[in-house]
Amino acid sequence: MAEKMLKFVQTAQAMPEKRSASERAKDFDEIYREFAATKADEQASRCSQCGVPFCQVHCPLHNNIPDWLRMTAEGRLEEAYELSQATNTFPEICGRICPQDRLCEGNCVIEQSGHGTVTIGSIEKYITEKAWESGWVQTPKPVHGERPQSIGIIGAGPAGLAAADKLRRKGYQVHVYDRYDRPGGLLIYGIPNFKLEKNVVERRTALLEAAGVKFHMNFEVGRDASLDDLRKKHDAVLIATGVYKARELQAPGSGLENIVPAMTYLTASNKNGLGDKVAEYDSGTLNAAGKKIVVIGGGDTAMDCVRTAIRQGATAVHCLYRRDKANMPGSMREVKNAEEEGVEFVWLSLPKSFRGEGKVTAVHAGRMKLGPADASGRQVPVEIENADFDQPADIVIKALGFDPEDLPQAFKAPHLEVTRWGTVKISARSKMTNIPGVFAAGDIVRGASLVVWAIRDGRDCADAIHQFIQAKAQPAAAAAE
């Protein structure tokens, strides 16, 4: 192993080649080129194989990162892929969109020693793409044969799909219900192509369909069937809807036209990229071409919006955030990419009202400074007196986060218990709601979070559903004897 690994001292960190900002700002293609085989092997060999793998500890899926890095360095790519997908339903997706700088790579031991982290995400993407090219990615098959019980999954996003994959491998009859016309949820309609090209998601959902997972698209629970209807039809139901309700900014003028939620804007752009007819995009209402764009927010969704606006041909794109760059919640890599592409960040600025008559023409904001830290440890923004300014805008995009919809009302299930934040309440041990046989996973439980956490929750919930069904089946089998 010593010959293949521990090369972080003599081998410098290297990321896959990134297309120039001027080139990538003209299209929605992914910005990183693929690693060459020799480069992937070389970068994997930088892993220190440390006794306590903090990269693995800080991965929500606890991926066996040091082991598949070693296999990559040794040229054992098929084994590396098998190990990678053993804990991760969608390694090629996580390799592209996970904020590795905040998770595995940010906690890499050699990063802390000043040698630069192992580029884990890029190698994960390389391994999985090689697996697809080589035919190593197989259709999920029931390991112990078919089971008669069926599971209904509400939501075809990352949590629902991860659960569907694992339950199908256990032999259950899996039905996925989603209100959109394509499976994928946030992966299809929320995340732009330059971070995650849609064919990457579509080939995974096609694989699930080939495995026997039944997708019921354009199906809205509460309209086409109630939650109780699905309970009668299936042996267990999983709620994995995610959270899509945009947080509002209550300020004078917030009712003006052309002030839009981030997901509305991103969905229109993604649908247009998929070839759908989108009236509001064609009319210019949700199209940044030739317009001054202001995005309010500092997370990864805000970065998706500003970088989308650049590619649509905006004349100016400004991002207003109430704290400074060091305190921004989004990935620093995404911030850097946005800056390279021409986005202007207006740090320490808080929107106070919106100017305009009928349509918005500017965001009126106050200058801020950072005061003492609050209970969370973050410094609290404090307004500077007499330092207001106007930021001209033709479209304002609110990227302030997401809250859950009122599911008890939407699902016609007033007995479904939710927390005071509106998220679905579950048992930490059983993953079940207060309704027997109804489970929940992903953002609808934990609040708006990362895709990798949704995958983790979906996989955990699949195991919990399996235990629930098997526990029910045992007394029935005993009684039959």
From TrEMBL:
Domain of life: Bacteria
A Gene Ontology molecular function term of the record: 4 iron, 4 sulfur cluster binding
Keyword Electron transport on entry: no
Record domain FAD/NAD(P)-binding: where: 151-458
Keyword Cell membrane assigned: no
Pfam families the record matches: Fer4_20, Pyr_redox_2
InterPro entries (alphabetical): DPD_II (IPR028261), FAD/NAD-bd_sf (IPR036188), FAD/NAD-binding_dom (IPR023753), GltD-like (IPR006006), Helical_ferredxn (IPR009051)
Dihydroprymidine dehydrogenase domain boundaries: 24-135
Coiled coil: none
Keywords: 4Fe-4S, Iron, Iron-sulfur, Metal-binding, Oxidoreductase
NCBIfam families on file: gltD_gamma_fam (TIGR01318)
The name this protein goes by in its record: NAD(P)-dependent oxidoreductase
Organism, as annotated: Ferrovibrio terrae
